[in-house]
């Protein structure tokens, strides 16, 4: 067992604190990763604050992880010592169900093992990436192309794949009008990726305060959702809307912006329900869908796509002791556009 430095939440209400956690001994197919950077996803905050249900405290969160391979198990063949790698939201799955066999481990019918707050195969609770090292089965470790700046790569492992997957599934591309609701961590990646796929992108943000950034990321248009005129002007417009908002919104107002056969995909995960009026769907044969991260093969595809298109997250690098302040800034939509913890500050 390896005892490593980490940051953990002691409870739903206490600030996160420095601590140590244990990593298991390397199994034959495991690799040990020395973590360089860990992104702060809003899901980390939902989890530690208990928004989604009971949590096994103390808990170390973090599922946007990049670093280097420090050691490989006796039968591990996919990664070599020194390789730059990443870990996202899953560290294992059953590998036998139809969805796992199809490379859709995020939809494992027997439940995948989350990077944190899940029960691992040895019965312990998984602990995430706000720590100096992690031990992971090599099949759930991604290759991170070296052309992506190291400190900016971490958010791709959740924010990147969570937006790439629905954009790819619903065929964002030339001739398609895509709207992105909320321009935070996920939202700004959705804009960049949809633009790189060739779609015409509109940002729907609470205010116009980030308009210059949105246009610089490649969006053609940018509207404030606080202005009722936005919903009149954009009625029946979009083929695809990606909702990344972490809080409940009036989903019917957004459904009315879809054109015939359009789809609104919610990746945002507020704990409250989003009540849908069926009449908001009837009008233009619209669909309302959800999407969860992405499978391991698709995550690799996304990393390679971002490398080949020169796409990287916009980040604010922070030290371990700044995590609690960063959480408050995320909660007040004051993030430009992902906080990333420099794990060297934890050593
Ligand atoms: P984030 O950085 O906080 O971004 C959320 C954005 O939503 C904010 O920047 C803000 O954008 C907008 N927003 C926040 N509160 C709002 C409100 N009350 N009304 C309207 N808009 C509001 O969060 P994130 O890390 O991107 O995560 C977003 C959500 O996705 C979270 O719920 C997270 O748990 C979920 N998530 C889901 C998956 C999945 O697999 N489906 C994966 C990762 C994360 P503007 O300032 O532009 O309005
Ligand atoms: Zn996440
Ligand atoms: Zn499975």
Strand content: 25-35%
CATH superfamily of the largest domain: Medium-chain alcohol dehydrogenases, catalytic domain
Query: Any low-confidence stretches, pLDDT <50, length ≥5?
Result: none
Overall geometry comes to: globular
CATH fold category name of the largest domain: Quinone Oxidoreductase, Chain A, domain 1
Structural class call reads alpha/beta
Number of helices: 11
- Let me know the largest β-sheet: 7 strands, mixed
* Small molecules bound in the structure, each named once: NADP nicotinamide-adenine-dinucleotide phosphate, zinc ion
Task: Please give the CATH architecture of the largest domain.
Answer: Alpha-Beta Complex
Task: Report the C-alpha radius of gyration, rounded.
Answer: 20 Å
**Mean pLDDT, as a whole number?**
98
* Integer tally of domains: 2
Total strands: 17
The helix/strand order is EEEHEEEHEEEHHEHEHEHEHEHEHEHE
Q: How much helix is in the residues?
A: 10-25%
Query: What gap, in angstroms, lies between the N and C termini?
Result: 18 Å
Multimerization state: single chain
Q: Please write the CATH class name of the largest domain.
A: Alpha Beta
Describe what you observe in this structure.
- With 347 residues, the protein is an alpha/beta fold.
- The protein folds into two domains: 2-158 and 313-346, Quinone Oxidoreductase, Chain A, domain 1, CATH 3.90.180; 160-290, Rossmann fold, CATH 3.40.50.
- The protein has eleven helices and 17 strands.
- The strands form four sheets. Strands 3, 4, 5, 8, 9, 16 and 17 form a seven-stranded mixed sheet that branches. A six-stranded parallel sheet has the order 12-11-10-13-14-15.
- Helix 4 crosses helix 10.
- The mean pLDDT is 98.
- Bound molecules: NADP nicotinamide-adenine-dinucleotide phosphate and zinc ion (2 copies).
- Residues 41-43, 46, 158-159, 162, 182-187, 205-206, 244-247, 249, 267-270, 291-293, 330, 333, 335 line the site of NADP nicotinamide-adenine-dinucleotide phosphate (NAP).
């Amino acid at each position: 067992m390896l005892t490593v430095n980490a940051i953990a939440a002691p409870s739903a209400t206490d600030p996160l604190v420095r601590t140590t956690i244990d990593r298991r001994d390397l199994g034959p197919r495991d690799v040990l990763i020395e973590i360089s950077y860990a992104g702060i996803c809003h899901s980390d905050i939902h989890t530690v604050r208990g928004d989604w249900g009971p949590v096994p405290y103390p808990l170390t969160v973090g599922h946007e992880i990049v670093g280097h391979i420090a050691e490989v198990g006796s039968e591990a063949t996919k990664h070599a010592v020194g390789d730059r790698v990443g870990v996202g939201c899953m560290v294992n799955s059953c590998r036998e169900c139809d969805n796992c066999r199809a490379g859709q481990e995020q939809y494992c019918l027997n439940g995948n093992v989350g990077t944190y707050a899940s029960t691992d195969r040895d019965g312990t609770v998984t602990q995430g990436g706000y720590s100096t090292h992690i031990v992971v089965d090599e099949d759930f470790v991604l290759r991170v192309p070296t052309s992506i700046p190291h400190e900016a790569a971490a958010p791709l492992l959740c924010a990147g794949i969570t937006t790439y997957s629905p954009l790819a599934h619903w065929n964002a591309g030339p001739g398609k009008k895509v709207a992105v609701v909320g321009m935070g961590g996920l939202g700004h990646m959705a804009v960049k990726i949809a633009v790189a796929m060739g779609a015409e992108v509109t940002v729907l943000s609470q205010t116009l305060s980030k308009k210059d950034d949105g246009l610089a990321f490649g969006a053609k248009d940018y509207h404030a959702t606080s202005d009722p005129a936005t919903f009149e002007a954009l009625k029946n417009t979009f083929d695809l809307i990606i909702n990344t908002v972490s809080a409940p919104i009036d989903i019917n107002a957004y459904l009315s912006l879809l054109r015939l056969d359009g789809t609104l995909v919610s990746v945002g995960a507020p704990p409250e329900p989003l009540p849908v009026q069926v009449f908001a769907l009837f009008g233009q044969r619209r669909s309302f869908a959800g999407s969860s991260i992405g499978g391991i093969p698709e995550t690799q595809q996304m990393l390679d796509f971002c490398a080949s298109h020169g796409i990287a997250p916009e980040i604010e690098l922070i030290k371990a002791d700044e995590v609690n302040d960063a959480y408050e800034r995320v909660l007040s939509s004051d993030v430009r556009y992902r906080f990333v913890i420099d794990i060297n500050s934890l050593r």
